[in-house]
Amino acid sequence: MLEKLDALHTDFKAQIVNCTKQADVLNLKSQVLGKKGALSEILKSLKDATPEQRKEIGPVSNNIKQDIEKSVQAKLTEIEIGEVNAKLAENKIDFSLRESLIENGLTASGMHPVHKIQREVEDIFLSMGFDVLDGPHIEDDFHNFEALNIPETHPARDMQDTFWFRDMKHLLRTHTSTIQVRGMESRKPPFKFVGPGKVFRCERTDTTHEMCFHQLEGMMVGKDITVGNLIYFMKTLLKEIFKKDMEVRLRPGFFPFVEPGFELDIRWKKPDLKKGESEHSGWLELLPCGMVHPNVLRAGGIDPDEYNGFAFGLGLDRLVMVRYAIEDIRHLHSGDLRFNKQFKSF
Ligand code: PHE
C-alpha cells in the first residue's frame, strides 16, 4: 500500500507541472483527492490492514494529502498571476501620454510660458537665499483680507472682486499675499521667501484682465530693512529676467498691507511702437510693493517694534506678456496648443 501511495504521489507531481489552466489543476485534484479519487481507492483497502500497518499508513497518506493540497494551491496562484501579467502586457497603457505630449509640443522644452517664467523667477530667488512657499487656492477671510490689514468693512475690499463661497467665509484667493500671512505664521524672523501661484478675481475679461492669473509674492523680514534693500532685490530680479540692467522708478501706490506702498515701473519698449516714437516712450507698471504694515506683522505674530520688512507682488502673466510681446492675456489661458507650441524653443 505504501508503494501505491508513493506511486500516486509521484504521478501527481509529474502531472501538475504540465497543467496550464486552472480547470486542469482542479480536475487533477478531484481525480486524486475526490470522493471517488485515486487516494480514496487506495485507502479502501485499509480495512484489511493490521493495526500496525494502519498506524504507519495513516500519517503517510495524510502527509501526501497535505502536500497535494499545497501544490494545487500554489499551482492555481501561479496560473492566476501568469494570466494577469499576460493581460496587463496585452493592454499596456502609457499613462505619461508621452507620444501625445511630444506630438503637441508639450514636452519639457514646450512648457507653458507662465510656468516657465515662474520656475525661472523661483530659481532667481532661490539663488538669493529666498525659500519658495506654497499656499491653498481656497482661503479663509483671515488669510486673504483680515490679516492683511483689510478688516471686514474696509473699502479696500472692493479693490479685489472676489469669488466667495456660499458660507461667505471662504473664497478663492484674490492674491498670493495669503502666502505672506502663512509664511509669517510658520517661521521666525529673519526670513525671506516667495510664494507663487494662481489667483482668482471676479473680473470681466479683456485683453489685460483674466479671472484667473498668476502672481508671485515675496517678503523679507528682519532688523532694519529699508526701501533700499527692496529696490536692490527688485533690480537684481529684473536684470536676471531681462538679461540687462533695467531702469526703474517708484511711484506711491496704495495697498492696505504696506506702508509706504509703491508701484515699481520699468522703462520698456512697447510692442506696437508707433513711427517716430522713442524706444523709451513708456513706463510699465510691473511690481506693486512696499514696507510691510505693522498691523500685518502683528497679525503674523511678529513684533513690529523689533522687526520690519518689505513685500512685493509680481504679476507672472504680465511678465510673460512683456517678455514675448503678447497683446492679449487671454491667449495664455486659451488652452490652444498652437499658442503653446510657439514657446517650444524658448
Ligand atoms: N497683493 C497685491 C495685489 O494683488 C500686490 C502687492 C503685494 C502689493 C505685495 C504690495 C505688496 O494687488
- The ordered H/E elements are HHHHHHEEHEHEEHEEEHEHH
CATH superfamily heading of the largest domain: Bira Bifunctional Protein, Domain 2
Portion of residues in beta strands equals: 15-25%
The order of strands across the largest sheet is: 1-4-5-9-8-7-6
Q: So, CATH architecture of the largest domain? A: 2-Layer Sandwich
The top level CATH class name of the largest domain: Alpha Beta
Q: Tell me the total number of β-strands.
A: 9
Bound molecules: phenylalanine
State the end-to-end CA separation: 84 Å
| Low-confidence runs of at least 5 consecutive residues | none
Describe the main β-sheet briefly: 7 strands, mixed
Number of helices: 12
Overall shape: elongated
Radius of gyration: 37 Å
Instruction: Give the integer mean of the pLDDT values.
Output: 88
Determine the CATH topology of the largest domain: BirA Bifunctional Protein, domain 2
Kindly describe this structure.
- With 346 residues, the chain is of the alpha+beta class.
- It has two domains: 2-90, no CATH class; 104-341, BirA Bifunctional Protein, domain 2, CATH 3.30.930.10.
- The chain is 42% helix and 18% strand.
- It has helices at residues 2-17, 22-33, 38-44, 51-90, 98-103, 113-127, 141-144, 177-186, 227-242, 294-299, 316-324, 337-341, and strands spanning 131-132, 138-140, 170-172, 191-200, 212-222, 248-252, 258-268, 282-292, 308-315.
- The strands form two sheets. The protein has a seven-stranded mixed beta sheet, with helices on both faces. A two-stranded antiparallel sheet has the order 2-3.
- Helix 1 (2-17) runs parallel beside helix 4 (51-90), helix 2 packs antiparallel against helix 4 (51-90) and helix 6 packs across helix 11 (316-324).
- The protein is elongated, with a radius of gyration of 37 Å.
- The mean pLDDT is 88.
- The structure holds phenylalanine.
- Phenylalanine binds at residues 175, 177, 215, 217, 255, 258, 261, 288-290, 311-313.
